[in-house]
Amino acid sequence: xxxxxxxxxxxxxxxxxxxxxxxxxxxxxxxxxxxxxxxxxxxxxxxxxxxxxxxxxxxxxxxxxxxxxxxxxxxxxxxxxxxxxxxxxxxxxxxxxxxxxxxxxxxxxxxxxxxxxxxxxxxxxxxxxxxxxxxxxxxxxxxxxxxxxx
Length: 150
Known about the structure:
This protein is α+β, with helices and mostly antiparallel strands. It has one domain. The protein contains three helices and five strands. Strands 1-2-3-4-5 form a five-stranded mixed sheet, covered by helices on one side.
């Protein structure tokens, strides 16, 4: 994998750029991005602040490591939850409304983002396998297959 790493990193950069990732940066060790160029709702990369793809050698195989940051999600939903709590308390509502608001808004978005980005990591690793091996391996145990670790 180490001899194919530059080619794999360029593939990742192209793949995420096509999906409208913004400020894609390729270094010798990783590919990173900041948000999305798409203003449309539902953009895959618009829901995260930044992300980084890198490779790690674990358990005698190469793994694609993909990390995402979602600080805006937690900050925005915290502010909305506090406002909902203040509004509920002023109007004599239950004390737990802020916790429920945060759990619903942040939790649902967080889980949705994790599922969507895990799919991206799987698609990228399958694309790298196809690029390096010439075809997508059918079985999990084929030597040299890149595994996605999200």
